[in-house]
Amino acid sequence: MLGKGVVGGGGGTKAPKPSFVSYVRPEEIHANEKEVTEKEVTLHLLPGEQLLCEASTVLKYVQEDSCQRGIYGKLVCTDFKIAFLGDDESALDNDEAQFKNKVIGENDITLHCVDQIYGVFDEKKKPLFGQLKKYPEKLIIHCKDLRVFHFGLRYTKEEEVKRIVSGIIHHTQAPKLLKRLFLFSYAAAAQNNTATDPKNYTVMFDTLKDWCWELERTKGNVKYKAVSVNEGYKVCVRLPAYFVVPISLPEEDVLRFQGHGIPIWCWSCHNGCALLKMSALPKEQDDGSLQIQKSFLDGIYKTIHRPPYEIVKTEDLSTNFLSLQDIQTAYSKFKQLFLIDNSTEFWDTDIKWFSLLENSSWLDIIRRCLKKAIEITECLEAQNMNVLLLEENASDLCCLISSLVQVMMDPHCRTRVGFQSLVQKEWIMGGHCFLDRCNHLRQSDKEEVPVFLLFLDCVWQLVHQHPPAFDFTETYLTVLSDSLYLPIFSTFFFNSPHQKDINMGREHQDTQSKPLNLLTVWDWSVQFEPKAQMLLKNPLYVEKPKLDKGQRKGMRFKHQRQLSLPLTQSKSSPKRGFFREETDHLIKNLLGKRISKLINSSDELQDNFREFYDNWHSKPTDYHGLLLPHIEGPEIKVWAQRYLRWIPEAQILGGGRVATMNKLLEMMEEVERLQEKIEERHHSQGALPAEGPSLLRSSARLSSLFPFALLQRHSSKPVLPTSGWKALGDEDDLAKREDEFVDLGDV
Asked: Which residues form the Myotubularin phosphatase domain (predicted)?
């Protein structure tokens, strides 16, 4: 036990300063470190993972506790993660561990998940980067999944502090080469242990057969064809080896500008209309080159715009929609609302939380994305028009909007396999630069933009508003967002299929070395046990009833019947120069010319949108037809499970949507039991998963943010004064904290 401050008894007008007397020698403190070390859990390393540096007697603070309680342990840094090894992990009971990630533990942070590192110097918090001249007494790590870790280094040996702090800063902030990512170390070490889940039916779209299957599924094979002209990436390294173009488009046109200026098929609607995307042609200053490009685009346009049979509406997402800078700026402000260091900070910001939320503009960006997707849906569904999305590289906002349109219009994309196939088709094969947008290599902060996270947030709005329409849960979306930073899967760690193939040794099969075989993120068995995976599947999903041939014959799609709205009929070509005008606008967009107004972006378009939107929401929802979100102000909400899950004050213990789900599952289970009694049969498998309700009810620590947030465990470990070890002799602090002490008895 450390003694309290002792006040001297000298005379005079000014009382002498109190002195602090310690009855524990420093060597006794270090002797107690050995007892802590003996209790620590073993560091589990993945195949290919190597320990880089470590520090003992590190105190991991309990985040929500203002009196700075904590747990002693060891802080380690490997080439895959930062991990804290404390002696409290054994306290986790089986119920709490039911949603445990098999790859990343509760106190693990992958190096790619580190967002910002701060040090505390004399109670002042400063960002850390580069070489340090002075080392902090506390380390604070902000994560991209919005966790916040506080590590006290006051009791750690000085050389260990230097080693662990410098190591963490270097391995999380220094620019990396692609081949130096842990992804490759893991792939090489786990070559014989990369079995995939046999139940994973996700379409990867890495073969011509996959694209032909998708064309047949959407009935797009009448007007479009899958081509292999880019096989071996001979034409363009930006495009996938296989993709789909209009049947009337000559393959030599694809070769003309290395795949730029080519309408690439995304999806076909039930009425024959299609969603297409196109990347801009290289900007040219020479008049002769501009004229060549203009003639080329004029010919391309004739293949997709043939009035009155086929009409195309163009949407230029580069100049008439959000910018990537808008998205990054909004999210940078938005995430600060959830990176809370302690309870005091949480309550200090509570009074102005909604104004800060509004000022971030993140929810408004989500609303604009959903609105744009509804506008395009209206063109496809109600006006029977093809829609062509334009963007400089067609790999950011094109991926976002085309995916949202398909989630709204195609019920297959609302199943788990269908959604995963959609991400593969539009994002992975669509060439979204995950490596740059997630800044995995730490080479340029300017390229980092959370476009994919914005897409998941938009999908969450739909899941939240229409739960029975989706085969997956919000928990599925949350763990998918977390998987962006797991470098054992290849899914989100390359900028293009070509970059992946060439770095995995698949482009040249004549090499003697065996191509690396990486896991896909869609194999959820790598991260979760079967019981935990049940929380990814929505038990309230309304499956589409299977019809026999007699019922199916002559039947139309439900949403086609529901949305045969008297809005605007298919517009035929105006008599005066419509084709010429549309072509000129398209050419100007693709050549980078500034235009004042997008095609059809008139008051008439807004009227059509509003009538379409209001008509749909005035009718009963068909969960296997078209699905539109509410986009009015209060309807766009914060994705609480992802953004608030690590903040204890934000939990509703025993309440929230999870409580409602729990009751519904209980009722469903009871109905199933009654059905079994009525039929008087013993079924080995029920229509509904019997373990679902018990999985929720078994945990006494249930909260509104289940399964991530649980009732916090208050540790009985040392109670440290807020001022810390070095300031214990301060006069005012001692007077105010007469009863505070440091108990080293159980260290």
From this structure: 205-643
Higher pLDDT, 285 or 303: 303
Q: Which two tokens stand for residue 161?
A: 């502090």
Q: How many CB atoms neighbour CB 377 within 10 A? A: 26
Provide the angle, in degrees to the nearest 10, between the axes of the packed helices 353-360 and 362-381. Answer: 50
Burial of 726 (0-12, 13-18, 19+ CB in 10 A): exposed
3-state class (DSSP) for residue 96:
helix
Strand-pair category, 243-246 with 224-227:
antiparallel
Q: How far apart are CA 422 and CA 210, in angstroms?
A: 12
pLDDT-wise least confident of 101-115, 412-426, 537-551: 537-551
* pTM of the predicted structure, to 2 decimals: 0.83
Share of the chain above pLDDT 70, in %: 74
Helices 451-465 and 362-381: crossing angle in degrees, nearest 10, is 70
Contact criterion met (CB below 8 Å) for 307 and 446? no
d(CA 383, CA 564) in angstroms, rounded, equals: 10
pLDDT of the residue at 496: 97
**Strand (E) or helix (H) holding 421:** helix 416-423
Q: Are 545 and 473 in contact (CB under 8 A)?
A: no
Q: Rounded distance, CA 107 to CA 604, Å?
A: 55
What is the C-alpha to C-alpha distance for residues 586 and 420, in angstroms, rounded to an integer? 32
**Per-residue pLDDT reduced to its tens digit, 28-61:** 444 444 444 445 578 999 999 999 999 999 999 9
Here the contacts of 228-235 (C-beta below 8 Å, separation 24 or greater) are 229/254, 229/255, 230/254, 230/259, 232/507, 233/498, 233/501, 233/507, 235/259
The neighbouring-strand residues paired with 245 are 225
Contact 412, 203 (CB under 8 A): no
Query: Is residue 512 a contact partner of residue 506, using CB atoms and an 8 Å limit?
Result: no
